[in-house]
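Why does residue order matter? Because the sequence determines the fold. Keep that principle in mind as you read this record.
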Amino acid sequence: MRIATGGISHETSTFAPTPTTLRDFATGLGLYRGSDILAHFPGTNNCTGGFIAGASRYGFELVPLLWTFAYPGGLIPRADYETLKGEFLDRLKQAGAIDGVLLDLHGAMVVEGIDDGDGDFIASVRQVVGPKCPIVATFDLHGNHTQKRVDASTAVIGFDTYPHVDMAERGSEAADLIVRTIRGEVRPVMAFRELPLFWSAACQVTAHPPINEAFRLVHEAERRPGILSITLATGFPWSDVPHMGASVIVVADGDAKLARATADEIGDWVWQRRERWHRKPLTVSEALDDGAKQGRFPIMLADMADNTGGGAGGDSTEVLRTFVERDLQDALVLYLVDPDVARQAHAAGVGKHLQVQLGGKSHPAQGASVPLDVEVVALSDGKFTYDGPMYAGLTGDLGASAWLRHRGVNIVVVSARMQPLDQAFARTLGINCAAMKTIAVKSAVHFRSGFEKIAGAIHNIDAQAIHTHDFARLPYKHRRRPMYPLEGN
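Structure:
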């Protein structure tokens, strides 16, 4: 049994000003070809790591084609996407006879002139392999799904967790399903249900209420006879595309009516409770005051409007400015993206003092730069290995980076956009996050995978930045339908 694998993965913010180019794919989580995929991903917590584990378990040959992942950012230029897709399809055509395809995708990819990048990619793969070859695709929880990608796939499997700690598990599940399909043990059919709602990030932490109740229903339904898999996706609202929003996809064994009824059951359950999936975020000051009142440290602020993991610039300044104005002690900002200041710090050296203009350089919405006198405490080339559980075993590269200190405020300045998923990189600089009283992270939820265990209190805030969670303020042009809670009930 020979199963081809690979994928082009990107979460695209159409509100981010900078395009996502071929270079961004090469320098994100990487661009791997052929056998390099099998060398790089065994034992890692991503879907391809799960595919590899499944190949070992079932004894099939995994035929690696092309795998690439660019960190979330702006629209992908059409020519760059066509280059990557063309190479993938060429490798697929040259792979010889295959029995199936496992695709490691995101679900919110937008290309210049193509609203549904993932649907276009799967449909292109389908054209090469023909109508009978099984294609199973894995997707992020934040996919903006479409009927096109459902029609082009044999089955889709989405993440069940946020932070995404189950990626390898979902990849392993996909490997199991495609093997059973090839053997003729199951015959997947799918039903797709769209849900026109904005799902607040603070309400998506799957280990906690309220969304854990939705996934309890999903997992109970997955145990029913005839149900193979269920995907509940919360959507990605910073992709301004007609199909943006939450959805349910049910995979049943040969029973289209069962798939349809189950998708509608779960979709209705979610929609009837739609007010539970939306929560107004706090301001910076409200979060700091509430944290101080609780007296549990470190107080963690999720600066989610500047979440680099969603495509924001990572250089918004409201949080930093508030920390400085309040003269906070043992405060930490992770990470502020400012390659100019990082270069200045490296040129000056450890122990030196600099006058810098921090942040506020990628977009006017990020706020004005903050002039500060800082000490260079430590320097790094930006390379590190994730602790996990999210991305466990994978490597990251933040580029030239520095630990700067202004009085009691510590700032980790980096050159590449990447959200802090765990404490690994801070530790390489000598920072003990658990000893801090206040930590602000350029992240919405993923930071919890590595920080929740040390946090005294966690608050999601909506500081000034390009990815506001006040969806009424986003300049949508292509949203085709009313979305709760902005319009209607």
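Residues 97 and 409 are 59 Å apart (CA to CA).
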